[in-house]
Amino acid sequence: MPRRAVSCVVRRSESMFVPHPMPFACRYRVEVEALCKIYRKLVANASLNSKALAASNPGVIAKAGSSMDGIDRSVFRELLHSTFDIVTEETLMERIFCAWEKGYEGLPIRLEGWLMGLSTFLKGSQAEKTAFCFRVYDLNSDGFITKDEMFALLRNCLIKQPQDEDPDEGVKDLVEIALRKLDMDKDGKDYQEAIAEEPLLLEAFGQCLPSDRATMSFLSTLQA
């Protein structure tokens, strides 16, 4: 008897979204002051670049409300690549940006969101990092990581050969392996439980956290 298709693979755990009891800003004053300076510099530089672009292209009309209210996609992606050594494909870059500040998905990152997001990136607990990765992988933000979402996240990981009859077959195999690892009992087990049992699965669908080396290097600059 063929196995019934499973659409909901891993659900979120409500405990994953409990606010941090002691915000980053309260615990690390020196680091926060340095992060605020970096934020203001990034926003100011982006604003200058925008004005320079507008000046060199008189025919370009700036969109209403397009003045920098925060860190936009292009600045954020460059930061992920150059500062945190996150080299990943376009879909994940966009998802990291959208998941960075809960409640402000897709909007320029505000100062508060910048600080809280970096709290997870730099000194977050396992539960906080798990919650962040889940938001990144939950492409439609419905509280589940489905097989279709797994496929979308993993399809760019394999090199497809021209002679392959079904170039996506290898991706489908990866999805089935991930399904068995994350939801062995087909019971919609929550993501937090799966990662607690096997921490190496935290970034199973692509890198969305900085390496330890990049984290330590960035933290050292905040103390300078």
UniProtKB/TrEMBL annotation:
It comes from the Eukaryota. Pfam families: EF-hand_5. Residues 125-160 form the EF-hand domain. Transmembrane segments: none annotated. The keyword Repeat applies. GO terms for molecular function: calcium ion binding. InterPro entries: EF-hand-dom_pair, EF_Hand_1_Ca_BS, EF_hand_dom, Recoverin. Keywords: Calcium, Metal-binding, Repeat. This is AGAP000277-PA-like protein. It comes from Anopheles sinensis (Mosquito). The lineage of its organism: Eukaryota, Metazoa, Ecdysozoa, Arthropoda, Hexapoda.
